[in-house]
């Protein structure tokens, strides 16, 4: 799962016993050599899907980490791009890796639960960050995203189908989440990272409550499961403006 350039077991242990912010500061130099970085096939698939919706003027990568999602924004945004993250270490790596060309990129240190922006963006994306938010934090998180989007702006992020109960992936994620809950019960500061807490049905409900119209789009590159449902979807939530209707789904079946 890790390349030779990735973190050692000791480094991961030190990170796991830190706060989320400090833990990612420590992990930042080697983060892109871990399986925690969003895979390129997912990024490319999302970019293709957004190209069919856009183009957009300004874009924000929420919880941008080392900047993997910035290239996605660069393909669909024409004017400017911003990456925001709570970890100064991750932002430092992102700045070093900024590619020349395309719209100008700004890197901002900030908490996704208290974004330091007004309604300045047409598109907000996020990749692999939602495990750091407890279910009770979703209303506030989505309200923040809503507040930084212009009317008609989009909030887009991929969601992978949950592992089937009893499958190896199911047991692996259950074991990880259980270990994190035990760790947080006996150790401070807490390190919030739960893979099984971000449920699509809850996400849909809270997005609609925050004032979004919710649309699900299949990412066809990842195929379908045995029951015919997509393995990976793109959630596209649109901030309601003049002439928009109540929140709806384009696909009736969801996990």
From TrEMBL:
Record carries keyword Transferase: yes
Key words, A-Z: Methyltransferase, Transferase
Gene Ontology annotations of biological process type: methylation
GO molecular-function term, one example from the UniProt record: methyltransferase activity
InterPro entries: Methyltransf_25, Methyltransf_Superfamily, SAM-dependent_MTases_sf
Gene3D superfamilies in UniProt: Vaccinia Virus protein VP39 (3.40.50.150)
Pfam families: Methyltransf_25 (PF13649)
Domain Methyltransferase, residue spans: 60-153
Protein name, per record: Class I SAM-dependent methyltransferase
Source organism: Streptomyces ureilyticus
């Amino acid at each position: 799962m890790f390349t030779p350039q990735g973190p050692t077991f000791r480094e991961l242990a030190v990170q796991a016993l830190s706060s989320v912010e400090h833990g990612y500061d420590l992990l930042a130099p080697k983060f892109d050599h871990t399986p925690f970085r969003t895979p390129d096939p997912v990024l490319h698939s999302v970019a293709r899907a957004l190209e069919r919706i856009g183009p957009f003027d300004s874009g924000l990568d929420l919880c941008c980490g080392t900047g993997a999602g910035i290239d996605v924004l660069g393909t669909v945004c024409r004017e400017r791009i911003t990456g925001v993250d709570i970890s100064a270490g991750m932002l430092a790596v992102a700045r070093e890796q900024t590619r020349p060309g395309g719209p100008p990129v700004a890197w901002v240190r900030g908490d996704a639960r208290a974004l330091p922006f007004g309604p300045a963006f047409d598109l907000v994306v996020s990749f692999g960050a939602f495990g750091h938010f407890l279910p009770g934090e979703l209303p506030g998180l989505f309200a923040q995203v809503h507040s930084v989007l212009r009317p008609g702006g989009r909030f887009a992020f991929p969601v992978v189908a949950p592992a089937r109960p009893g499958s190896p992936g199911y047991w692996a994620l259950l074991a990880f989440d259980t270990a994190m809950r035990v760790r947080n019960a006996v150790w401070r500061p807490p390190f919030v990272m739960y893979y099984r807490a971000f449920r699509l049905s809850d996400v849909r409900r809270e997005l609609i409550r925050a004032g979004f119209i919710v649309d699900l789009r299949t990412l066809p590159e990842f195929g379908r499961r045995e029951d015919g449902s997509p393995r990976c979807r793109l959630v596209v939530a649109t901030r309601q403006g003049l002439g928009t209707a109540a929140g709806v789904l384009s696909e009736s079946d969801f996990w």
